[in-house]
């Protein structure tokens, strides 16, 4: 079975794919006829596809995020590869295919990522900080297994958020060793909490964000996480006036660094400065790595990357 | 007894004044002698003053924010009026003077402002919104009687914050009548809550802010008030997921309108848009009125006003 | 007769509508055939429509801004409702329909808006200010009956400009009562004059701006209104050096507040500061109200609104 | 008689100088004594000076912008050259000195500059444009003989404004020859009118601006000049709707290029684009030339120049 | 033979044109058929064209940047003129047509432009500066005959870069005469060198830039030219520490004036300030002239011009 | 001998200190007398000091950056600690004190820093990259032993530049292990080269920058380092068109990330993105650490730090 990124013009093929997007359109004819404008994907990439003469029954059968078995023909349309779907049916239980095989995903298993995060959480020596972090993680624990870190910006795939946390924890560990003036408890807590409300800010399935939630739009994940810390402290009988609560809320509130990037206050503790830079470093380098990975090996330049001053990245070969 | 703004060069006078600032300095002579560099004020304004040859006893007797009886001489120094203090003693109980007579203050009595705010609070028809507002007001009720609304920006005087709220409530009432699509409960609540955490963000005495609190610097009054709403809901058994909690937090979080002005989200409800404009209108017009009031009647231009694009205001006379 | 916003898929209908836009296009066939791509509207909204096989005669008969009687079929095209026009003829005198019934319009009759504006103008106590205002209003009086306040930004409908003025005058009245240091003559004059040149800056018909005039592009309504005040003063023998002329020109020139928003000077009188904030408050709240009104009741979010930091507004329901 | 820029430490000298600034100050002693803190200048530069023990009579005798005969001693104070004034008296009629010998001035005589400007004005072939230009020049003709072009920014000296105009006219002539698509009438008129209201925007004496006028602050020279064109057209019976009036107002209004630099509209005619660049080129190059001229020959770097991105200019020697 | 800009609807014509762009598309039919979407151009302008039913042979015959003989029909499509190609064949040697007759080109012959540039270069009196300039010109001499100055911004046509240099040299000559404090050697060298690396920064053919080179993207023409000066000095045994090398590199590095426009340092010598303003003046005025030239004479407004604050230019007629 | 940061009011002391700044001033008396306004420092901090009645011989004896033996008295002046110098003489050879004991310095010995840098350089596997890096390091090797990384921004002390490099190399090592898609040769080379021209951009002694060099101002360290790479390649017979030269120049040119921060191009390779974030992380965290170290332990807040959005850092204690 051919992966999406291995198809070439004039290939006829049969395989299983994910319908990532599906729109019913009509031909320009008189009378117009319905057809499907589809995006087919697997874990290697995605392609445009047409399914002509969609019947009423077809319209009740095929939906976005459904797995399908496709007989198709790859051809060039306006100089880009496109698929003409000849036959298509929904995948059935007996087909032995699973949605998660067809989506882009962090390179480490979610269960291992969660394990690493919990290890870090368990290693926080201050019990009150550990309790607050655990309370907040508990609110989204199930979603942490699969949520992306953002809609498109970075780590926008299955378990991307947990992957972002786990890698930041590694950088944080390194920095605490290199610079002992940093407080490891605060830095670990800040890394785990900084984006902890993202699963409630965004609506996502299979690592793909379809929209922001109402709460996400009206409050944003930064203010939400800050309120969760308040809630955690009250529920756990931790003094709201404690410097620990203050320190954790400051880490969360300031981690975007500037007001125009969404932070109502700027970093003013050593760990808050560190957190912002660890976050930026991991996000930007992951953007670069992901862009290079999903750009065909023979192309020198990736597409433009919004988070990198809208520049493309060059595949430097020495 | 002459008011500060009535003194003229060569006036000899006796009166009670407030020591707003006091610094011990030393003359350039060899050996240098100590003297006091003082700012004397009353409710009409303030002036620089010198108290030469300060003794060790004087240094234990006179402090900022103390009332004193002064025998002095007004004279010009570098073209500006200055006071030479000939004799000075702390005001005593029998003098019948009170600190509050000597400071700048809102033009309406604090007790009346608080009454107006409580009236508005009581007129909120939704009991949960009313409860949340009352809880938050309760946290700072005593300070509301005297806190300014800002360090220097606007309403920077005794009870300035309550005055700001009360006047905004008047504008809000007018707008709800003019535009019935606005929800009066939300708008009143938003007006009362938007700056409710300022008394904990700033350290003030007698209407004068000396500094921001640690919490004020690390969290800011916007995130603090948002967390107070969470706290109020939990303590009052109101569902944290209620649209009322969401609506109130959105009002508080968005009222500065832009990220670079400190709001992590932008106004996205009708009442949030209204709140921002009511806040701006009241603050800016009060800046203008206060600047004109404290500029001598015979001067055409006020000093530059930072909040008005750093422009001076012209006293237009037709 | 069904209103546009009541049509549902598969409705067959007959009714009168306005052709808001009409473009002659050609099918992709060989040879291509002409058809009309039309936007039909009434006061409740607008919809895309196709009129296939447009004849040469049709092309001489149907034009934008014409009223037509339509027999049509509503259907979904690319998931959005669209009209297929089966038959169509121009409305005739005997049909008893009038253009103004088919366009979006201020919620108050133009004649009442003009009356309110003239009342305000008549209440200006200073005769020279009143004369200048009257002269400028006189230049565009006829257009004030129907001009919008902007192309798309706000109050973009029939008599939108007069509606904007009338509502601002209400806010101005309130503020002058709340803050007696404001000069009512100047504030009323400022409100009436601030956008008075817009009818010459823009080319509009039935409340719809098709373009800016050459003068509008090269001078802008702010500089135009400022020159009109000069003209008014000369024609009425009012001293050009009078502080009244200066005060009025300052109000007009500064009302956009910042250079990047088109004001060559910033507000530097109390009334100029007030004018800017009244203008902003009325424009922004009207954007919100209009967006909510024209968004179907069952949708939570309005479209993005450029003038509100490009945010959508949430229909908060408590 | 020594020029200011020729004085060296320990020089004793007698000469005539201009009191550019004079402030009465008091020594720190007890009792303090009055002395004068003075800035003495001639056409070569300026220096700080002290006049100790100023008597009551002295305070009635010496004022800023007065010529004085000085017996003085140059010495170093805090590593900078300063003058101790030993004796001083006002210059008398018989002294044969004239204020204009003591101030910085354009390198060409005002009468010649005015002649060049009038020549250019006379060479405008369109009679209506010529009439409007002449009317506006007529309003400030006397002041054109001596006004600077700005307070400090550029050409800030005697007849600086006329010098700026005359040099811009030379560049304009060159450009019209190099690029015949430019209309010389419009370009000449634009050059002469663009800053024509500056003499009413600023209050200046002897080429030194002391302040902006009320009109200058509230309207700005750009809007003032635009209104003058309206006035000129009305007084000369030129149709206000003429493209000539429009073209001239556009030139004036747009010459600062951007809103944040004070232009309510951006250049949209060929001549308006040319005018902006001629203005910028002449102003910036004159800043450079003047900074190099007034920096001692042996210093490599001029002071920082605000109009040149706040950079210093290096005296490159090859 | 009709020029592109003379064609009118319903004209049938035969002539030679350049295929500026060619894309193979497919009709919406089932099965879809291939056709060519073409842009035809000559030196007077360009138009869209369709070539229906493109055969396999056609797809091997016709390519962008090829000259063709066309029999066609002009008609209106969506209100814009379009060409239906009836017959088409590649131009043959015997046709006597040459590519360079069909492209937009500087109004002066390349050979004359190069001559002017070399004259200026030869007139540099300092032998080391002259040597460095000659070395850098030598690196791109062949490309200078035809390269444009930019992709779309300005002088985007055959020999546009040489034309830009030649015209700037004229302005430079004028300025050196008007302001003798400028060093003509440095200014000439700066003009010739400022964009000298553009032919290596961009990939162009026939005056049309298809892309930036890898080096162009990763280094930019400013840093490239700066390194070329280093290279020139080393190869010519000129001291790298010489003020001449420093002065030339400063001219190149600073000529975009601001960091956000690509200059790592700001102009800090007289000639660098001059160079920036000469560059801006020539580029902007050429944009205006070219926009007016390529806009049909009967249209009042050019398209929007990105480099002119995205404004259109008005064809002012007096 | 007391360290500067251990002195308390009324301490009389004798010790060796560095004269960091010395200005000859004059008392306000008549006649004025010369005195020295001095900044005394050692490795623990610095204090203001006065040396009254400076004789002509004193003025020839004491200079900035000289070591002196001081007998002094610490006292409060305007609420800050100040030193009155009673006696003072230059340190002599026999005193056994050395300049380097009195200045602020990186916490690791320069020789060890240089060793670490050379180790990293030696571990570059590509011989051409290694050669280029070695050539550039060779140009400033002696200065690398003591130069600071900036004038005030960060690492502004003895060997600060080498310390910055060495710590960045550690982060780079960690990142290359965490993310194997990064090329270690390029990243090491980028870290060593990115600020390599700073010793020629700035004029420094003992870790203190007194000014920028002429070359530093006119070219900046970024363009200088880029040219050094050109020079290194030419001198070492490495092809200028090699991707290695291109990659190294891109790293240097882009490391400030944005044009407004001095980079003419933005990072467009993986290693360039990494380099920018390593640089920012090390610089910002060092600012925080240094600010906390030099703020007395009992103060909660450091001074404002320009490079951290001008915020102070809070000494969080849990």
Model description:
Six copies of one chain form a homohexamer. Chain A folds into two domains: 4-102, Nucleic acid-binding proteins (OB fold (Dihydrolipoamide Acetyltransferase, E2P)), CATH 2.40.50; 110-291, no CATH class. Chain A starts with 11 loop residues before the first strand and ends in a 25-residue tail after the last helix. The longest helix of chain A has 24 residues, at 270-293. The model of chain A has no long low-confidence stretch (mean pLDDT 92). With 318 residues, chain A is of the alpha+beta class. Chain A has helices at residues 56-61, 110-122, 127-144, 160-178, 184-193, 198-201, 214-218, 220-235, 243-254, 270-293; strands at 12-26, 34-42, 45-51, 66-77, 80-90, 202-205, 208-212. Chains in contact: A-B, A-C, A-E, A-F, B-C, B-D, B-F, C-D, C-E, D-E, D-F, E-F. Chains A and F meet through helix 4, helix 9 and helix 10 of A and helix 4, helix 9 and helix 10 of F.
